[in-house]
Specification:
Elements lengths: L1 H8 L5 H21 L3 H20 L1 H19 L3 E9 L3 E10 L5 E12 L8 E18 L7 H7 L13 E4 L1 E13 L4 E18 L4 E10 L2 E6 L3 H4 L10 H4 L10 E18 L14 E17 L2 E12 L4 E11 L3 E11 L3 E2 L1 E6 L3 H4 L3 H4 L1 E6 L6 H4 L13
Parallel strand pairs: 4-5, 4-6, 8-10, 9-10
Antiparallel strand pairs: 1-2, 2-3, 3-4, 6-7, 7-8, 7-9, 10-11, 11-12, 12-13, 13-14, 14-15, 14-16, 16-17
């Protein structure tokens, strides 16, 4: 137990410290046993010592003293503030942490977590695969930003990364998470170098998984429930473009791979994703203000997104799902019902068995959009997107069409 305490207080020590301390502790007791005249008293004293140390480490005041020491030493090593207000943990399966703060070297908040709880497999470190039975995170915020090519978290990567060795063997502990709960979590990425700001937030998230295998690159999820999720992206001219510098082409796999979205070869299956009152924004910098009376491809804002996405499968560069949702765009265009067998690749967005109900129209049963680049071509929808449709028993009102083609606004036809 003393060896474990040493590793906790001196986290920068290597594994050899643990083994030396543990060996010394065992050797000391063996020596005492050989010299002891009363073996019974020896065993009793040994058990009492272990129990005393064990219960001492269970005391909140002792746990917080250890964490305070670790935080102070880590802050000195990182040259950035790291602090934890309170922690309780049970060796070796539970942890309850409150008030985690990590600052960057400009003393801005990089990470703050109001509360985090983890339940893990008992004695996980002696098993080949550990299960995170329950993970929760609440009132948390992550702030990532850069104005040049270096992110504000780069010092963490430099500190925790270790030199690669040819003799390094594959293996180690595999982790599989079963239940994840998030509450009031915000993620902010401000990239003034490239010119892309991204925000992701959720009021509440509940995730129940079937299996996650990092080594095999397989993710199988049961249900994911998102309450008031928000995703926003804003593209603008970054400092790199202002300096007329070439874009990063240092990753040859991005050019030679047969895939655009999934070079690593991940496979994901999700039985059901339920979204309640979500928001999606995707905007680009323009000299004009966003249109409010028509669909604006460079200023997208969908709100009140509610629905279910079932039987989701993502493999290679293809995403498929059975979708059923409703939403409203800032222009006033409302999707009252959108149900279809959905397919999305880098070249096509396809809706089979379509049942679409909008403000004044109803369309079915096939619709597809063809493009070379979804993010770029959506900004020039009329000229860059090729439409394909097969409508049966459908009604299209010119008022709905006018959101995308303003010149037909006065037609008033069905």
């Amino acid at each position: 137990m003393f060896a474990l305490l040493v590793v906790y207080v001196k986290p920068t020590f290597g594994n050899w410290v643990f083994y030396i301390a543990l060996a010394g502790w065992i050797a000391g007791w063996i020596y005492t046993f050989e010299k002891a005249k009363h073996k019974t008293w020896f065993f009793l004293s040994f058990i009492l010592t272990v129990l005393l140390l064990w219960f001492t480490l269970q005391l909140t005041v002792v746990q917080n003293l250890i964490i305070s020491t670790v935080s102070e030493k880590l802050s000195n090593s990182l040259k950035a503030n790291v602090s934890i207000q309170h922690i309780e943990y049970s060796f070796f399966d539970k942890m309850d942490l409150k008030g985690l703060l990590v600052e960057d070297r400009q003393k801005d908040t990089l990470l703050f977590a109001g509360s985090a709880k983890v339940n893990i497999t008992d004695w996980f470190f002696v098993k080949s695969k550990a299960t995170l039975k329950y993970v929760s995170l609440s009132n948390a915020v992550v702030n990532m930003h850069r104005t040049d090519s270096v992110w504000n978290y780069q010092f963490l990567i430099d500190y925790f990364s270790s030199p690669k060795k040819d003799t390094l063997k594959k293996g180690g502990i595999e982790f599989d998470i079963k239940i994840l709960q998030l509450e009031n979590v915000h993620f902010n990425q401000i990239d003034k170098w490239v010119g892309k700001n991204m925000t992701a937030a959720v009021k509440k998230l509940d995730l129940f998984t079937d299996d996650i295998n990092i080594e095999k690159k397989q993710i199988n999820l049961n249900t994911l429930t998102l309450d008031e999720p928000v995703f926003s992206q804003f593209d603008y001219e970054g400092n790199r473009d202002k300096l007329k510098l070439p874009k990063d082409t240092s990753h040859p796999e991005a050019r030679t791979s047969a895939y655009q979205w999934n070079n690593a070869g991940w496979v994901m299956n999700v039985k059901n994703i339920h979204i309640n009152n979500g928001i999606f924004n995707n905007e680009k910098q323009t000299e004009r203000a966003p249109f409010t009376d028509r669909f604006d491809g460079v200023h997208l804002r969908f709100s009140n997104i509610t629905g279910d996405f079932k039987n989701i499968h993502f493999e290679r560069d293809t995403l498929t799902a059975d979708i059923h949702f409703a939403t409203k765009e800032r222009s006033g265009f409302e999707i009252k019902k959108f149900q279809a067998a959905f397919k999305f690749t880098p070249e096509i967005m396809e809706f089979k068995n379509l049942d679409l109900v909008t403000n004044k129209s109803r369309l079915g049963n096939y619709y597809a959009m063809h493009f070379n680049s979804f993010s770029k071509d959506m900004g020039d929808f009329l000229h860059s997107i090729k439409l394909e449709a097969n409508f049966i028993n459908s009604e299209l009102n010119s008022d709905d069409l006018a959101f995308f083609a303003p010149e037909v606004k006065g037609w008033k036809r069905i």
